[in-house]
Amino acid sequence: MTASRLRGIWQRVIDLDCVHVYHWPRGRAAPSAGGAPGAGVSYRSWTLAEAERERTLAVSDYLRHAVGDWPREWPAAARAQARLHGLVENAAVVAWGFTVTGMTEWPIAETATLLRCDPSDHLLLGFFTEPAQRGRGLYGALLRRITEDMPGTGRAMIWVQRRNRPSEHAIVRAGFSRVATHWGLKAGGVPVWRRYTIGAA
């Protein structure tokens, strides 16, 4: 049996995952790089009800599924104030993600841990760029637009798996700072150990 096959079997049985948590404190100046989506690309924001009505804007079925199904899994308080944010080009959404406010904690599925937060914080989740549009800096541009337009005094908070280097690079380039790291160990898909650390270490 090859080493790669043994590694694959091991990872299916024992899975150690790591998620980095980043935040954007209110009042921070926008970075000078990484924010321009390009000519012909506009930013839009919708309530969940508006997004449901405008799902035809999606390039793929993935966004239609996310808008219709994901919020049903969220607490009622999250659905009430959630928004969909997107970059639109040629009448189609090419990059998008959600923000949720009013929460004091949010489950991080990868590590089976809870993100502690303030109700004024804006939790950023479910971001996606259409595959044909990747490599254009749209993710970072969308993050920057969201932070520029955020109402209130709370932070913007986002988390990313450590193994997802491209997304983490875009988050850092957009001006976010790491504030915590969550670890979770699963055996056969069942959480058996978890911990988190505060700070960038």
What does this 3D model show about the protein?
The chain is an alpha+beta fold. 26% of the residues lie in helices and 38% in strands. It is built from six helices and ten strands; from the N terminus they run αββαααβββββαβαββ. It has an eight-stranded mixed sheet with strand order 2-3-4-7-8-1-9-10. A two-stranded antiparallel sheet has the order 5-6. A hairpin with a 4-residue loop joins strand 5 and strand 6. It is globular and about 50 Å long. The model has no long low-confidence stretch (mean pLDDT 82).
Taking all Cα atoms into account, the compactness measure Rg is 18 Å
Distance between the termini: 37 Å
What is the number of E strands? 10
Order of helices and strands: HEEHHHEEEEEHEHEE
Overall morphology: globular
Low-confidence stretches: none
Estimated helix fraction? 25-40%
Category from helices, strands and their pairing: alpha+beta
How much of the polypeptide forms β-strand, as a percent range? 35-45%
- Largest β-sheet summary: 8 strands, mixed
Mean pLDDT: 82
Q: What is the overall number of helices?
A: 6
Strand order of the largest sheet: 2-3-4-7-8-1-9-10
